[in-house]
Design goal:
67% helix; elongated; 2 helices; 106 residues; mainly alpha
Length: 106
């Protein structure tokens, strides 16, 4: 009997690829079904024992993936803050230059 262990609907391609690689590293024998008219894409295994093991491995994967994603968001937001600070500073300098140029022109 087949056991569905993970639904791939709405999973980004990079996460799908990483999950496949992780399952292979952990020795999980799985197969996938594509999305169809009446079915969603999913990861399946062939035995109850393998399903239990696969769910544990997938839970580990998701935990690691979430941790990496949160770290990436933190890095990105600090970089975005640096860029926005520079942009604001540049705008202020431009306004000062324009103001001084208009004052000298009068």
């Amino acid at each position: 009997m087949a056991y569905r262990v993970f639904d791939l609907s709405y999973v980004p391609r990079d996460e799908e690829d990483a999950l496949r690689e992780y399952l292979m590293e952990k020795g999980i024998k799985y197969y996938e079904t594509p999305s169809g008219r009446h079915s969603a894409p999913a990861v399946w295994v062939s035995s109850a024992k393998e399903a239990e093991r696969a769910r544990i491995v997938i839970e580990e994967f998701q935990s690691n993936w979430l941790k990496k994603a949160r770290e990436g968001i933190g890095e990105r937001s600090s970089a975005e803050r640096r860029i926005s600070t520079k942009a604001i500073l540049l705008i202020v300098v431009i306004f000062i230059v324009l103001f001084l140029a208009s004052v000298k022109g009068l």
